[in-house]
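Supplementary Methods. Inverse-folding protocol.

Structures were first reduced to a discrete structure-token string of length 81. This string, shown here, constituted the complete conditioning input.
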């Protein structure tokens, strides 16, 4: 199983969108400073995720959400889930 996920940082009021095959481990790594792009926002918390059987589907959904470039659309997605 693969996941597209959205995490949120209260410290910098920012969302981050990604994909992974191990959701728990990936969130832990974001919070352990393993990723340059999320380094400034530690402590991250999972606010949304979707499951996909194939890696390509999760990657495609991640790209789709990132292309929105809209905080309002991301927050709408989270609220409506």
């Amino acid at each position: 199983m693969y996941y597209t996920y959205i995490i949120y940082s209260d410290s910098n009021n920012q969302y981050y969108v990604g994909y992974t095959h191990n959701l728990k481990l990936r969130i832990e790594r974001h919070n352990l400073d393993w990723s340059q792009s999320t380094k400034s926002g530690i402590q991250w918390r999972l606010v949304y995720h979707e499951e996909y059987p194939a890696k390509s589907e999760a990657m495609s959904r991640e790209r789709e959400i990132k292309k929105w470039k809209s905080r309002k659309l991301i927050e709408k997605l989270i609220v409506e889930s």
